[in-house]
């Protein structure tokens, strides 16, 4: 459950940073009336189209149709979830989040202090880099020779801060001790391992090239080591793993990191495409050849968290694989993930089992880019692999297995893609089965999947005939709107955080594939009235039934207002933006706020009157809906005479009540 500490932290961080400074960092900011404008970093902006409102501390790009507060800007800019954006801004403002972390406090020098770990990792990465750059001796010479053999230039080495860990037991530990870091900190940072005897530590990386792994703020958070064959042979360690990564730490989770993303982010965003490779040297070689939108996984298969990260920056992902069987299996494993996320996945299989670094070195960037252009859709790739050596018209079992495999994956996507129609035609051509029969089977699979995964979307709150007393500002608050959004957020279970949305007991977290739908019509009028006159929100919390609202976005906004009310918070836009963590919902709030601002100074009905009229319209609509249902019951011919008479009386009394007509007495009858 979220606590008031979460809200207080968000409030403190927002007050400590200026959205104008955050958005304007490194770009030209121009005044425009009471606002400011900058070139939007999220599309190819020829003229400034992103508006910053310093008074409201909000932003909006009308071309991209995205906006929100300072938190949602960092989420969009860095492609991160809300807890990460909150931490980024807290660190920028010098606010220690650990002070708010369920009562647990850390101090500089502790192995669980994030700032200490950042400093320790940076110190070791810098020491390894300088050792390769300026060090003396046979080992350093062999490391440089290996880089030369792989075609990695000095410029690339410096760009990626590649270093060298000498084949020693305490190079990193000694360096950290000179800077007053303890062995426990070295272990917590992932650069040292505790001795089995419990007496001290030794270096994790020895005799390896070092590739620092950076987060999106370009801070080193871990590192990977590549064995140098000649050094391994000298130390009689030729069986050593080719690559090793740092362990999971407070800063580093390999299932949520991609090597080189901090360098490739802008190129990916502007081109809409990202190439995913398998090794550090592949990324370095590609960037060196001028191929910029490239990243690599870190010793793990692509997972759901990776897909969500990539989806923030690109709509098309090209999976670059070696031509071996293992590469093909990896393509099959990730296809379902990308289909479920609605991402266009392409599969590039390199010829002759070569890896990207070798192929680019031997054939050049133009040849590689041509392969990228020709890379097939992942469905086409899978269909081609399933069809190898199979006569679909003769081998019924193989054909049926292949068909079910492809359709099973297609069933997980929305089905509104022209590519799917084309694929069904190709399936029909290959199998001899009619298109309509294949489509019917796909519809059945989609229906089965929908029934199996359907969950009720809880919108109604318990009735509250008497509002509860407002709790003190320091008490726990039932802030559950983010729980409703948790299944839509770009975060996963592995990133559990005290600031991550949590599911409140007894409430639904929403359907897994739900998406926010725009607020329109009477719902939009309602929330514009509440934003214009926050005093009305207290009445709306009690008067509005969530089932009256047409969109899930409107229902969630009402829930946010209800949670603010229960927590004793102000019911204004600033509080509303702090309450919700979802960037789409923040965008909707800022859009509504902008519409209200456009009416400022214009003649309009009194806000109270408009609110009363809106409530009346809601009730009228509900009355008509109920009336229609009752009439349908009468027309169904399933009621006996007494039931029909009772229902007619109910309809008549309801109509009289709606029109303000008193029910006649027996004498009047």
Automatic annotation (TrEMBL):
GO cellular component, one term: DNA-directed RNA polymerase complex
Superkingdom of origin organism: Bacteria
Gene Ontology molecular function terms on file: DNA binding; DNA-directed RNA polymerase activity; zinc ion binding
Keyword field contains Oxidoreductase: no
Location of the region described as Disordered in the Swiss-Prot/TrEMBL record: 446-476
Any GO BP annotation: DNA replication, synthesis of primer
SUPFAM superfamilies, A to Z: DNA primase core, Zinc beta-ribbon
Function description: RNA polymerase that catalyzes the synthesis of short RNA molecules used as primers for DNA polymerase during DNA replication.
This protein's domain notes: Contains an N-terminal zinc-binding domain, a central core domain that contains the primase activity, and a C-terminal DnaB-binding domain.
Name of this chain's protein: DNA primase
Organism: Crateriforma conspicua
Gene name of the record: dnaG
